[in-house]
Structures are given as C-alpha cells and as structure tokens.
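Q: For a teaching session next week I want to show students how multiple molecules come together into a single three-dimensional assembly. I've collected the sequence lines for a complex. Could you give me the predicted structure tokens for the whole thing so I can convert them for display?
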Amino acid sequence: MSDIRDVIIIGSGPAGLTAAIYSARANMAPLVLEGEPSSTSDQPGGQLMLTTDVENYPGFPDGVMGPELMQNFRNQALRFGAQIETVKATKVDFSARPFGVWVGDPDTAEPTYRANSIIVSTGAQSLMLGLPKENELVGHGLSTCATCDGFFFRDKEIAVVGGGDSAIEEASFLTRFASKVTIIHRRDEFRASKIMQQRAFDNPKIEIMWDTVVEEYLGEGQIAGLKLRNVQTDEVNDVQFSGVFVAIGHKPNTSLFAGQLDMKDNGYLITKPDSSYTNVEGVFACGDVQDDIYRQAVTASGSGCMAALDAERWLEDQHG
Amino acid sequence: MAGAVGTLSDATFDEEIGSATTPVLVDFWAEWCGPCKMIAPILEEIADEKGDAIKIAKLNVDEAADIARRFEVMSIPTMILFKDGEEAKRIIGAKPKQALLDDLAEFL
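A: Of course. Below is the structure for the complete assembly, covering every listed component.
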C-alpha cells in the first residue's frame, strides 16, 4: 500500500505550480503530477508552453517567454522540495479518504498514490473544429501551435479561425512570417479585447472574413485550403491556404472528475465563493479548470495560492 | 559515442546521415518551441538507454533551415528516423517517453 501524502497536485500550469510553491514552503511535501508532453496545450506547464512573449505577467517589465516563465515556476517549486512527476493521472477516487490517484493503468485495484488532500489544477486546452480529417492533417499544414509552426509558413498565405484574443494574438504573431493572414470568424464582430482588435485592424497583412464558418478541410495528407460558408448569404467558396491555425476557444480538462466533482454545464469545476473548495471536502480546485471568466496566468497563479492555503488550513483542522 | 545526443547542421547533415552505421533519429527543434523543450530530456534518456541501437541528433531549424525545408518539416518537434541514409519513420509532435519508444520499437 502506498504512503499517504498530505497533498497531491494534479496539473502544472501557473495554478498548480503556485500551489506547489506555497504548499512546499508549508512543509506539506507536495507531489505534483505535471502531465505528459504533447503538442497541444494539454501538457506540462500548460497553455503558456505554446506562447511566446507574455507581456502582462507582473514583474517582467520587458515581457517574458511563456516556456521560460513556466520553467521558472517549476524551478521555484523544486527549490522548496516539491516532488514533480512527468505523468498523467488516469483515474481519481474522491469517494473515501485518503483519496486515491491512479497513474498508468486505471484498472488496478490499488491507486498509485494516496493523499489526505488533493489540489486540482488541470487547466483547459484548445478546442479544435471537430471536422473530418482533422487528426491526420495536424502537423501537415493544420496547426494547434502558432508559435511552434508559424516559422514554416514564411511568405505563405494562412488562415486563423476564431475571433477571441488568442485568435488575434496568433494572427498578429503569424504576420511575422506569412505574406498574408486571413482571420475567419463566424460573427460580424470580435470577442477580443479592444486593444487586440485594434492590433488586427491596423496590421496591413491581416484580412478579416466576417460571418464565415469552415465547412471542410481541403487537401489530402496536406492542407490545401478550406471550404468556407458565409452564414449571411449561404455562399460557399473554396479558398486556398498553405496553413490553417485554429483558435476557437478552450475546454476545461475535467473528464477525469466526471461524477465526482460538481461542474457547470460547460464542464468547468464549481468552487465555493471566495475559496478553492469543491463539493468534496479536502479536494480543492484552482486555475483555468474552475475559471471560465478571467483565464489569465496571474489569476490562475493567485487561485493556486488560495488552494494551497485552503488545503493547509483544512489539513490542520483535521488533525485538530 | 553511444549515449550522447549529437548536433547536426546544414554542413554536416548529409555526411553524418550517409555514413551512420546505426539508424539516426533527428530531432528538428527550435529555441522558441515549448513542446521541443519538453521532449529534449526524454530524447537524452532514450539516447542513454538505447545508444547501441540508435543514434539521436538534434537539428536546429533556425540554423539548418535548408535541411528542414528539404524534408518539408512543417511542425516542430518533428523527429525523423533515417536508416541507411533514407527516411524510414517520421514522428510529429511531442509525446510521452513510452509512446516514443513504441513508435521506435522496430528499430530498437
């Protein structure tokens, strides 16, 4: 039977690693299950691993690279004795205490790890369009990571699908390489913040196709373009693009907790007001997995601190 | 020298791949790619453990743009396994260690 730990933190973005820093400094010897590498935003370090310059994280007047910022978070957690494992949780049991967390085969009788408290910080990941051929075209002109792949579209015409801050950020970034970037948005106005919108309107390399949705990926084994439909006129057009970047929003990584933690209709975890408490006593949630409003690195980090303090105080009360 | 991860450039690529006696896994990467950084330590571990069967070399796509273009690398990390100088397998995207080992199993 595995040892019973004070706290296990599932997830390693700004929320999880801040929780790790605080709980390590409180001598709780946290174990962080940081996830596994992938080319989507579902990976160790979280969504910032797929960004370049982070310009709004306080304390970095000249900006900082996303991956570098997360490496700093990680090093800071390690410095205070957090144990970080590059594995993904495959099952949790929050029905009895100590709580159980499985890694690898979820069908084994005994959990891999057990703990008196759990901090959930599994974040959110980018949504894809869900159209046919999507999986086979990723890496062949269809990309989930502008910062990774933009470089390869030098002097090419590319499309960005979406209308929020991240879509415009990607489009602006991609104009460093591409000859032209077309933003394809299903409505006639952006969701993005005013400052980001202005950035798009001011950029001569960015063209915007309003009221337009993607019907189909064109190309075999390699993106050749998109079949687009105007939602006002129903007119359908095949447009050639060498690359397509999708930035249509995020979904929380909460399937692991289905049936155990209370969620909103959109899948985000519910926390009690002004706290990180979930519906299960001893299980705390922080970061984007429970935040469908702010979704910033700095708010995630702040809520990670709250979760660590909540867990520490709750554990103290248990020992009474 | 089994175990170490080598470095390739535009200038050395053909010579090194052409003369290799074992399969070579070339990791196309760049400084600004987060997922590339995540897999770097995994590739070091694989080089350490499987160095007798397979060589691992890194190729920086900023510095060796010609080679990246020749092999139509459009997404990084991309790992291409060369056997007898020819591309034998292509792996796109960062993956956990076991998934990479599974992909490479036939060459190990």
